[in-house]
Design a protein that fits this description.
Strand content: 35-45%
Number of strands: 16
Order of helices and strands: EEHEEEEEEEEEEEHEHHEEHH
Radius of gyration: 26 Å
Length: about 300
């Protein structure tokens, strides 16, 4: 459990939360101390069947896009140029925080981090919230819209490794629990200094590490055929900071892959003849004559 600095929406049902940033050494020390002294494991609520499960949906013009289950994943069809919103549902009797990313970018600050480190939206008990775009300030957001990889927000930021994916990871709010405080053992000062010196040596960059970085995986150049998300028009979305304690164990994770129609066809999810007729079949069915007396006006 860790105390978080969070953001609460003003005038709407949505909230969002960001982790209070500390130095890496402070984070590690805090985590170790708390984990070693906790003696009571709290009982956390499970989803109430009357309110369904953790859900994420994609809406265009107020209507949920049809979902297709294939290859162990959930897919939706992206409509080029269409604005969309992400709807997130909390089935629990307590607040939850959800780390929501689009194209691998956090929808609050456009960073790519772990789910635990990510800034998060906060949802009240049994509530459903609508996230319409990238949060750019405490008052404004910019709308999501389906576009090509080349025009995407990720391409503008140079982050194109995770295009075509919406991901949500849920964390429960956790109430304070009794803990047993165990004083840390006294350590010899010289031993601490020696350990500190060895730690600094371990953190020094090695030649092999530099080589690994130089040979990092290269991703294809963004194209104009595959779907991604752009950063669109500005909309009002007021928020403010709040405080929240979270269970570090994720309660659920929901992911949605999206592609244009032709991409879904290539993946074998949509049949080719569903929407676009086969041109060669049309040409094969051509006829030279029909029962008509005169040429019609165009």
């Amino acid at each position: 459990m860790r105390r978080h600095k969070a953001i609460l929406a003003v005038g709407v049902a949505a909230l969002f939360l960001g982790i209070l940033l500390l130095s890496p050494g402070s984070i590690g020390a805090e985590s170790t101390a708390r984990d070693s002294t906790r003696s009571v494991v709290p009982v956390v609520p499970e989803p109430d069947r009357r309110y369904g499960a953790f859900e994420v949906q994609v809406l265009v013009d107020g209507r949920s896009l049809e979902e297709y289950l294939a290859h162990g994943r959930t897919y939706v069809e992206a409509i080029e140029g269409a604005e969309y919103e992400v709807v997130v549902h909390n089935p629990l009797s307590i607040r939850v925080a959800v780390a929501l990313s689009v194209d691998g970018l956090n929808t609050i600050n456009a960073r790519h981090t772990t789910a635990w480190q990510a800034s998060k939206w906060v949802i009240g008990p049994y509530q459903t919230i609508h996230i319409t775009g990238w949060q750019v300030s405490t008052e404004r957001a910019r709308h999501f819209y389906f576009t090509t990889e080349r025009d995407s927000y990720g391409a503008k930021l140079g982050q194109t490794a995770n295009l075509g994916l919406i991901s949500a990871v849920f964390f429960r709010e956790q109430s304070p629990v009794p803990i047993t405080v165990v004083p840390p053992p006294r350590r010899d000062r010289s031993a601490d200094e020696e350990r500190s010196e060895s730690g600094r040596g371990a953190n020094a960059p090695s030649a092999s590490a530099s080589k690994d970085k130089s040979t990092a995986r290269a991703y294809p150049v963004p194209d104009d055929e595959s779907a991604a998300t752009g950063i669109g028009r500005s909309v009002s979305n007021d928020v403010r900071w709040v405080q929240l304690d979270l269970d570090s164990r994720p309660a659920a994770e929901v992911t949605i892959r999206y592609e244009f129609y032709q991409g879904l066809v290539k993946l074998g999810i949509m049949p080719r003849h569903d929407r676009r007729p086969d041109v060669m079949r049309r040409r094969e069915d051509a006829r030279g004559f029909e029962d008509r007396r005169f040429s019609p006006e165009p």
